[in-house]
From TrEMBL, chain A:
Protein name: Sodium:proton antiporter
Pfam families named in the record: MnhB
Keywords: Cell membrane, Membrane, Transmembrane, Transmembrane helix
Domain of life: Archaea
Membrane topology qualifier: Multi-pass membrane protein
PANTHER family, sorted: NA(+)/H(+) ANTIPORTER SUBUNIT B (PTHR33932), NA(+)_H(+) ANTIPORTER SUBUNIT B (PTHR33932:SF4)
From TrEMBL, chain B:
Gene Ontology annotations for the cellular component aspect, listed alphabetically: plasma membrane
Main location: membrane
Keywords: Cell membrane, Membrane, Transmembrane, Transmembrane helix
Transmembrane segments: 6-28, 35-53, 59-78
Keyword Hydrolase attached: no
Protein known as: DUF4040 domain-containing protein
Membrane topology according to the record: Multi-pass membrane protein
Signal peptide, first to last residue: none
MrpA C-terminal/MbhD domain location: 18-82
């Protein structure tokens, strides 16, 4: 009874606060549904074939902002995520000497069959989200975190030995993750080194040509729009995030008996 | 005829209201597994809210992280400790 009363009062509180905010908002300024001036700048420049001064050649303004206009922020975000993964690996060091327990592992045959069908679908959608990140909503992090659900489902439905027996170990994931980060770094400084070798001014994390520096990475590859650096950043971030999440899940599902026998 | 925009905003208001209820239930629930499920329900409603507020990029990262990875990791952690919260 007391619980229902608390639930009712919290609903009433939320409704009354919402009502109050609505009434107050009627008398003060509320942002309209028109496009704001800042959004105008981005929407005008993100895919502008006429005025190429500040364009990113990507119809997806969010990915253009994340990897081009504010590219340095995202590079450091990726670094922070990398450090978090390094920390969790450091906590679980020396914990990989355990053997498979005898008998049937994983969940029932129904769950396994459903997982066999859905896991490839999840990976397909994830790759689509990541590789179309410069055209439609999505990007490297979105695609990578979607793809990380697939190893999670495999671990829960089939047990972690299913992955380990097929070579998907912590070390392989760490290699993939480091390669992804290396690729992000290389793509970030490509335009700068083109500028160094051709004796023209260019910037780190530059994508398309600006008024002060004519260096421009190819926006089209074989007739397909890849938006210069954006496609490569999304691809590298996809693998980095997928491998990072997989490492954490692999570390978390280690049975405790393995750890205890290792300590003795 | 109801204005479609009003209908969508009403849906947003309803989902935010239900998300508050889900948060409340997740906090007071003593069974931690049920609490994780309530938290995932709240995340699903938030994903709907993000979609209504026209942020599809956030929806795409919120659904796998907040409904897939986060409850699964918390459930793995709960399976290594006790399933019921004690006073």
């Amino acid at each position: 009874m007391r619980r229902e009363f608390a639930l009712l009062s919290i609903i009433l509180f939320v409704v009354s606060v919402s009502l109050l905010v609505s009434i107050i908002a009627h008398y003060i300024y509320i942002p309209g549904i028109n496009i704001r001036p800042l959004a105008h700048i981005y929407l005008n420049t993100t895919y502008n074939l006429v005025n190429r001064n500040f364009t990113a050649n990507s119809p997806e303004a969010v990915t253009a902002i994340v990897w081009d206009y504010r590219g340095l922020d995202t590079v450091f975000e990726t670094t922070v995520f990398y450090l978090a993964i390094i920390g969790s690996i450091a906590l679980g060091r020396g914990l990989f000497k355990f053997s498979k327990s005898s008998g049937e592992t994983g969940l029932s045959i129904i769950v396994k069959s459903v997982s066999r069908i859905t896991t490839p679908m999840i990976v397909t959608v994830a790759v689509s989200i990541a590789l179309h990140g410069h055209l439609t909503p999505g990007g490297g992090f979105q695609g990578g975190s979607t793809a990380a659900v697939a190893p999670l489902i495999i671990i829960i439905a089939f047990s972690q030995y299913f992955l380990i027996e097929r070579g998907i170990s912590k070390d392989l994931m760490l290699v993939i993750r480091s390669l992804g980060l290396l690729m992000i770094g290389i793509v970030a400084i490509t335009a700068y080194f083109i500028g160094v070798f051709t004796k023209t001014p260019a910037f780190v994390l530059q994508n398309q040509a600006k008024t002060v520096s004519p260096v421009s990475l190819p926006a089209y590859l074989g007739g397909q729009l890849i938006s210069g650096t954006l496609w490569f950043f999304n691809l590298a971030e996809f693998f980095a995030v997928l491998a990072g999440f997989t490492i954490v899940i692999l570390l978390l599902v280690i049975p405790e008996r393995a750890f205890k026998s290792d300590v003795k | 005829m109801i204005d479609p925009q009003l209908l969508v905003l009403g849906l947003a208001a309803l989902s935010s209201l239900f998300s508050v209820i889900a948060v409340y239930l997740a906090i007071i629930e003593k069974d931690l597994v049920k609490a994780v499920v309530f938290s995932a329900i709240q995340s699903g409603l938030y994903a709907l809210l993000y979609y209504i507020l026209m942020a599809p990029d956030i929806v795409l990262v919120y659904i796998p992280v907040a409904i897939g990875l986060y409850p699964a990791i918390i459930l793995i952690l709960i399976s290594k400790t006790e399933k019921v919260e004690k006073d």
